[in-house]
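Supplementary Note 3. Input sequence used for the single-chain structure prediction.
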Amino acid sequence: MTTLLDSDQLKTFIAIVETGSFTRAAEVVHKTQSAVSMQMKRLEERLGKAIFARDGRASKLTEDGERLLDYAQRIVKLNAEALNTIASATLSGRVRLGVPDDYADRYLPEVMARFSRSHPEVELTVLCEPTVQLVELIDIGELDLAIVTHYDARRQTEVIRRERLLWVTSNRHSTHHESPLPLALGPSTCVWRKAAIERLQAAGRAHRILYTSRNAGAIAAAVFSGLAVSVVPESGMRPGMRVLGAPENFPALPAFDIGLLRNRHETSALADALATHIVQGLDNLTDVAAE
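The predicted structure, written as discrete structure tokens, is reproduced below.
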């Protein structure tokens, strides 16, 4: 008689491979570490093969484990698709979205409106945090989807938009003439902050960090009051801001990708539906003209 593979065991197996350890995988699949170990023991018994080296206590795969991984991913995905297709006639429940507040004002209104009209019985929970925190929350299963600044090629991020990064100042002040140049930027983990400082250093322009905040509104306040210069994505331009460039001796900043990050361990019809609206919504956004 043919032995069938257990999809729940395969899901745990994938989580171990993706997180790098049994302990972190246990958090993702909401099981105890001993339960995860038992699942892998039973999976190996069902296969008649060892899939982890060193008696299954490490995440390093054997050759048989490597072969199993591709099948496991396809089986789990197909299982989720079947359930989602059958359940998608009338969607209800809750879906959790993370987005940096730099993007929230520009992206969320249309996405939320379209999604709500299509799925009025679904509760949408939105959390605004920087990309680094959103990636961590996705990894531990606290979010279903996250719109993030794509900066790590190792992440399985679906790139959905590309934008320019711009130097901005208040259109009522001349802060950009000061030396050293006062800056209002995100925390040290912010890739925009790193890009801004690297370009200023390469240009030999004296500068100092005057304000640091994770909140886009607080950064904008420092700009509007004429206290500092900052960098924002083109979608983050607000009335009262003025773009600085080569005429003001500001070095060009790199473009960056905006990506959609999915919870790979908890697929759902709700998350898939919201992802579709996000992709369509950002595709339909017009480029922001600098004022």
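DSSP finds nine helices and nine strands in the chain. Strands lie at 93-98, 122-127, 145-150, 158-170, 181-185, 207-212, 230-233, 241-244, 255-262.
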